[in-house]
Amino acid sequence: MPVALKMSQVYAPTLKEDPAEAEVASHRLLLRAGMVRKVAAGIYTFLPLAWRSIRKIEQVAREEMEAIGCQELMLPIVQPAELWQESGRWDLYGPELARLKDRAGRDFCLGPTHEEVITDTVRGEVRSYRDLPVSLFQINTKFRDEARPRFGLLRGREFIMKDAYSFHADADSLQEHYDAQARAYGAFCDRLGLDWRAVTADSGQIGGKVTTEFMALAENGEAALVYCDCGWAADVEAAESVVARHPSLREPGPLTRVHTPGIRTIAQLASFLGIAEHDTVKTMAAESPEGQLVFFLIPGDRELNPVKADRAVPGARLLDEDDFRRYGIPKGSLGPVAPPDGTLLVADRSLQDEVSWGVGANENDFHFVGAMPGRDFEVASWTDLVVAEEGDLCPECDGVLKVARGIEVGQVFQLGTRYSEAMHATFTAEDGSERPFLMGCYGIGITRALAAVIEQHSDEQGIVWPVSVAPLEVAVLPLAVDDDTVYPVAKGIWQALADDGIEVILDDRDDRAGVKFADADLIGWPVQVIVGRKAVSEGTVEVKVRETGERTQVPIAQAPLRVAEMIRSKRR
Q1: Strand pairing of 438-445 and 402-416?
Q2: Cα–Cα distances in Å, from 391 out to 197, 244, 347, 508?
Q3: Strands, E, within 41-189: which ranges?
Q4: Residue 238 has pLDDT above 90, yes or no
């Protein structure tokens, strides 16, 4: 059905000034272009133009899912607490889970994700290996009670998501579908015109051990990632760190206790001792769930990665001020030599070959130089503990890592039996045994994708939509609507484009040319056909490409065909 709209009839209240609340380009432009309006912190109304783009993004996701045999269904937003208690996440998920009670006092939550509901759905119906694999998806509204919603759609509380779930009899089947989902996610990002990276990630509260994020590169991205020219990339929380170490202290020496009055930072210590910061070792104190004191030992010039620390000692938490007083240890002078009895020493693997360390002496105003592992203390385990940084070595080649920021558009997980075991979701295997399903889950943030497109495709004048997700593809701008020459020509082109299957809008408002030009660039119509008196008198119209700013004079009779061909060449 032809799509031919008129600006006078479209609800798109544009703003002349940047809203004070907007911190990033996508938030600012969605508000200014009359596409969203804030209802509450992190909760937005999507106005007609934004909704047209969202529906297009949903359709791209839908087509990519159906192409790999994933079937669409719809799951409830309100979920009973019993399912979350079965999986163990009712208490684990934390305050982001919005809980509520019905009139009978029963506990429910607003779904931030749907692993529990889909597992419950499938476990009651799929009983045999012959029925597997099963792959299902939905496009639905989610709610997470973010503590600090910000950046518009990039960190909201209510958002639209495409989430898919798969059930398998064996690991090979799960891997095959996981790979198919990853390819579909790459195709999704390509069709939206995104510059993206597939990065190794941490599974967080979802669970599972194998996961990949699809990150749209953006200066205002909420996540940092490291990548190599070889194609390897990872979220900094999950990135394996291969630290290029160049120690200055290469020879063992005596353990020497040094008075270091007032020294509390690594920079102060290195300066006082006359050594490089990377020749010092920083000690971070934590406590295991069993109450054991843990010292994490990392290069002095690096930061501890809390995700890796938790992986090394599950459930360990860094000490607070009260803990330091309870243990009777000095916060600014911790070290591995003679720690409190029973302390577990876990060191970053980049320190393993270094023979001389500068460390705290576990006494205020004193440090050791020449501390040597194996002689002066024993490390219980060597592992990757630090945040990956620019300049680290790529774990897959000899390249050097670079750092970028990104917006997480999607993520795929291999869940294994995380939910099926907890919720007793089983099937009868070929050998007659009862086994838990192997599961995968796969999410795309539809509204985050909308914001990511704008972050990458915008300029000082406004949005620069890729044709694939633009609210409409062409705008026809008559510079006069009250005469019998310009407006009829513009209306004729508008109608001809619509009849040819092009999504087109006619700016029929009785406004100055400058207002129409500004709104056209702000909203971001990919192609604009400008119809003015002088051009019409010469038998031409001007065709402007928003992305490049290129302007071309085209004969009136040829304009509909030329513009239609241009749009079709840009569709993804």
Answers
A1: antiparallel
A2: 19, 8, 21, 56
A3: 43-46, 71-72, 78-80, 99-101, 107-110, 134-143, 158-168
A4: no
Strands 281-287 and 293-299: antiparallel
211 and 75 share one domain? yes
Last residue of a domain, one of 383, 412, 440: 383
In a domain, 33, yes or no: yes
Integer Cα distance of 335 and 314 in angstroms? 22
Residue 66: strand, helix, or coil:
helix
Is residue 390 within 8 Å of 226, Cβ to Cβ?
Answer: yes
196 assigned to some structural domain: yes
Name the domain count of the chain: 3
* Count of positions (residues) in the chain: 572
Q: What is the pLDDT of residues 348-378, one digit of tens each?
A: 999 988 888 889 999 999 999 999 999 999 9
Beta strands in 23-70 (DSSP E): 36-40, 43-46
The answer on 178 and 300 residing in a single domain is: no
The pLDDT value recorded for residue 2 is 73
Q: Please give the residue range of the domain that contains residue 493.
A: 472-570
Residue-wise pLDDT tens digits, 459-476 = 999 999 999 999 999 999
8 Å CB contact between 340 and 327: yes
- Domain assignment present for 392: no
| Residue with the larger pLDDT of the pair 225 and 447 | 447
Q: Give the closest residue to 224 by CA, choosing from 247, 205, 199.
A: 199
Q: Are residues 451 and 477 in the same domain?
A: no
**For position 539, which CATH number holds?**
3.40.50.800
| 283 closest CA partner among 226, 222, 213, 368 | 368
Which residues sit opposite 110 in a β-bridge? 78
378 and 439 together in one domain:
no
Domain co-membership, 530 together with 429: no
Q: How far is CA 254 from the centre of its chain?
A: 49
Same domain flag for 287 and 436: no
* Of the listed ranges 3-7, 139-143, 217-221, the one predicted with least confidence: 217-221
Q: What is the CATH number of the domain that holds 348?
A: 3.90.960.10
Closest CA to 334 of 371, 308, 306: 371
| Strand partners of residue 439 | 167, 416
Instruction: Tell me, yes or no, whether 460 lies in a domain.
Output: no
Query: Do 72 and 195 have their domain in common?
Result: yes
Write the pLDDT tens digit of every residue in 241-263: 788 766 665 677 899 999 999 88
Q: Are residues 379 and 422 in the same domain?
A: no
d(CA 481, CA 461): 25
At residue 151, the 3 state secondary structure works out as: coil
What does the alpha-carbon distance between residue 370 and residue 253 come to, in Å, rounded to a whole number? 5
